[in-house]
Amino acid sequence: MNEMDRLLTALREVKDDVDFASETALIDDGLIDSLDLTQILLALDEAFDIHIPAGEIEPENFNDVDAMLALVHRYQS
Fold first, then answer.
1. CATH homologous superfamily for 3-75?
2. What DSSP line would sit under the chain, residue for residue?
3. Has this prediction a pTM greater than 0.90?
4. Is 39's pLDDT higher than 80?
């Protein structure tokens, strides 16, 4: 399974009624809220063994899967 597939699987486990693969404004359009974002952070930690610092929790890092994958890449060892 490639990294994008791992990311999409983790995201679907958090919220399965959102099409993460095609949405480009997840936060801006209100498709995910602060509780969802907390769960996404935990899912990324588990799926990729990373810790994302609070300073990175900005809408532009979580509005779409490409931004989230770029964030994952920044924190992978």
1. ACP-like (1.10.1200.10)
2. --HHHHHHHHHHHH-TTS-TTT-S-TTTTTSS-HHHHHHHHHHHHHHH-----GGG--HHHHSSHHHHHHHHHHH--
3. yes
4. yes
